[in-house]
């Protein structure tokens, strides 16, 4: 009797086809939390060479995926279960939307035949993600999977980067097709290609921008994380060297040019933005971080030259001159235009001298404060020790993840960035809870770099359980927790506020004093340190940085050292 099974061609299901499509399109990493119906998808992706980083919580995994997209320029992939898993994943998708980073959220969903019947974890997920997704696709048949995958990956990086969503019903993941048909579908994936800008297409705008910069008495170059995402550091360096124009990075633009550069206006920020007459703004939005480009912070007569990949952004801000294009490309074209008829502000230029003088004065004032060893710790003493330890690291600069209120504000002024994309913080939305997810993304995207998180205890608490993830994957991450006993520093209430039937309860801003955060990582086999003096902190950083193993350094801070913090307050 013949063996009928021998005549049956090999088949694969939707899980394998998704994994094959992702691998075919260059995906190398995924982040997420598995469960019904996507566990097999994660396993199949791993079998095809995609590294899957499993988290405890979809929020942290989503923050990791969004940051991975920024750091690599390729969409970060978040995999979640249906319903509540997808909803938790919205934290990462919305973060990608706010920061304009490429990311794709992939969620399982209920069987299509059971929609509307109250199926397990049923939710109209395409509708749920609408506010934060550039494009949402739902594969309604297994054969639609490859091109659905291609479309969301492509759209995530097209134009202004952002998040996209792919919905995978359970029945589609179970469907089977022959392996040969699947391979043909994957081979035929259609990927659209972006067109490069040319000097000809932007000639008028480039010439106008060069003319404005040349005629300006007090020009300023401002750049942000959009320029960092674009890999525009070499072009910006050349532009600054060609023109001698002072520059100001936004918080996550720090490092595109070294903070120590002689033309950095960071320590003279108020003077720079208040007095400049022409501001070339590259890859940074004129939102709250830049005071909306309005007086009194900016001169009411300043002329903005805004370079952005989004035409809508330029229409919204209504600058004197808008150039729609990728930062790296546009700055390269500007350099070509300037080279044809060069100009350069010298060190003796009054504008350059005034910026340099103010930056030096403010820097010296800061160093006087930093030089003091204050115990119990304020924020400045440990931040200086951390700065010096980071600068002493040999090889590639560590990636610094900064999260918290006072911790992030002080760190922005004290910590020094010398290389591009080595600072991650709360970003455009001021999002708390991103810290551990960002750490994991940075460690995975740049395995040759040490990752150092400098976190407030409140920020750390959002995702503290992910220290187990650090240990499980043995990632080179040192988490430094500024422990001041609560949000802003414990109980700051006035006597009049301490009343009512629950007056004996802790303040809304209070945590357990002197909490043993370092012991959390020890429970999983990592290294914990508790420090209260400069020598203890120096020793802990020296040992943990050298080991490049998962560690938590619990820095006890005076609970009265901080202050309430909201919008960025720049006093330079």
TrEMBL record:
Pfam families in the cross-refs: TPP_enzyme_C, TPP_enzyme_M, TPP_enzyme_N
**Keywords annotated in UniProt:** Lyase, Magnesium, Metal-binding, Thiamine pyrophosphate
EC number(s) from the headed UniProt entry: 4.1.2.63
GO process terms (BP)? fatty acid alpha-oxidation
Its Gene Ontology cellular component terms are: peroxisome
InterPro entries linked to this entry: DHS-like_NAD/FAD-binding_dom, HACL1-like, THDP-binding, Thiamin_PyroP_enz_cen_dom, Thiamin_PyroP_enz_TPP-bd_dom, TPP-bd_CS, TPP_enzyme_TPP-bd
Domain named Thiamine pyrophosphate enzyme central is located at: 206-331
Keyword Metal-binding included in the entry's annotation: yes
What sequence ranges are listed for the domain Thiamine pyrophosphate enzyme N-terminal TPP-binding?
A: 16-127
Recorded catalytic activity of this chain's protein: an (R)-2-hydroxy-long-chain-fatty acyl-CoA = a long-chain fatty aldehyde + formyl-CoA; a 2-hydroxy-3-methyl fatty acyl-CoA = a 2-methyl-branched fatty aldehyde + formyl-CoA
What cofactors does the UniProt entry give for this protein? Mg(2+); thiamine diphosphate
What does this protein do, in the record's words? Answer: Catalyzes a carbon-carbon cleavage reaction; cleaves a 2-hydroxy-3-methylacyl-CoA into formyl-CoA and a 2-methyl-branched fatty aldehyde.
Task: Indicate what this protein is called per its UniProt record.
Answer: 2-hydroxyacyl-CoA lyase
């Amino acid at each position: 009797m013949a063996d009928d099974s021998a005549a049956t061609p090999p088949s694969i299901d939707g899980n394998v086809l998704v994994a094959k499509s992702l691998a075919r399109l260059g995906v190398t990493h995924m982040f997420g939390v598995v469960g019904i119906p996507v566990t097999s998808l994660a396993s199949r992706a791993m079998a095809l060479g995609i590294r899957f980083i499993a988290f405890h919580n979809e929020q942290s995994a989503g923050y990791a995926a969004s940051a991975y997209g920024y750091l690599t320029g390729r969409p970060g992939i978040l995999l979640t279960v249906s319903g509540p898993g997808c909803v938790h994943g919205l934290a990462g998708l919305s973060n990608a939307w706010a920061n304009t980073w490429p990311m794709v959220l992939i969620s399982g969903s209920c069987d299509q035949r059971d929609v509307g019947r109250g199926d397990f974890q049923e939710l109209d997920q395409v509708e749920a993600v609408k506010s934060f997704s550039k494009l949402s696709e739902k594969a309604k048949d297994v054969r639609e999977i490859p091109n659905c995958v291609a479309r969301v990956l492509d759209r995530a990086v097209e134009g202004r980067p952002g998040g996209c969503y792919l919905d995978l019903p359970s029945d589609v993941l179970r469907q089977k097709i022959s392996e040969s048909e699947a391979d043909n579908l994957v081979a035929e994936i259609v990927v659209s290609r972006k067109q490069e800008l040319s000097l000809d297409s932007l000639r008028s705008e480039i010439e106008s921008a060069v003319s404005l910069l040349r005629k300006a008495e007090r020009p300023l170059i401002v750049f942000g994380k959009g320029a960092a995402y674009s890999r525009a550091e070499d072009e910006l360096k050349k532009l600054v060297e060609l023109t001698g124009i002072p520059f100001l990075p936004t918080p996550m633009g720090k490092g595109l040019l070294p903070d120590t550069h002689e033309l950095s206006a960071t320590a003279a920020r108020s003077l720079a933005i208040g007095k400049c007459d022409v501001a070339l703004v590259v890859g940074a939005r004129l939102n709250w971080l830049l005071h909306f480009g309005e007086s009194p912070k900016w001169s009411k007569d300043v002329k903005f030259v805004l370079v952005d990949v989004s035409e809508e952004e330029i229409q919204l801000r209504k600058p004197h001159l808008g150039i729609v294009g990728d930062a790296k490309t546009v700055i390269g074209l500007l350099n070509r235009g300037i080279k044809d008829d060069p100009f350069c502000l010298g060190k003796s230029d009054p504008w350059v001298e005034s910026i340099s003088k103010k930056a030096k004065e403010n820097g010296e004032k800061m160093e006087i404060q930093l030089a003091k060893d204050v115990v119990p710790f304020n924020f400045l003493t440990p931040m200086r020790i951390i700065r010096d330890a980071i600068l002493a690291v040999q090889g590639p600069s560590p990636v610094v993840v900064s999260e918290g209120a006072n911790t992030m504000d002080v760190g922005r002024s004290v910590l020094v960035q010398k290389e591009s994309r080595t600072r991650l913080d709360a970003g455009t939305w001021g999002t708390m809870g991103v810290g551990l997810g960002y750490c994991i993304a940075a460690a995975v995207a740049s395995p040759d770099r040490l990752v150092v998180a400098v976190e407030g205890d409140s920020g750390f608490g959002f995702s503290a359980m992910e220290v187990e993830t650090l240990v499980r994957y043995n990632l080179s991450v040192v988490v430094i927790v500024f422990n001041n006993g609560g949000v802003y520093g414990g109980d700051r209430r006035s006597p009049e506020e301490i009343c009512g039937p629950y007056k004996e309860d802790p303040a809304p801003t209070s945590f357990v004093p002197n909490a043993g955060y370092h012991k959390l990582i020890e429970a999983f086999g990592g290294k914990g340190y508790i420090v209260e003096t400069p020598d203890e902190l120096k020793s802990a950083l020296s040992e943990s940085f050298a080991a490049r193993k998962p560690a938590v350094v619990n820095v006890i801070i005076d609970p009265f050292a901080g202050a309430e913090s909201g919008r960025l307050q720049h006093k330079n």
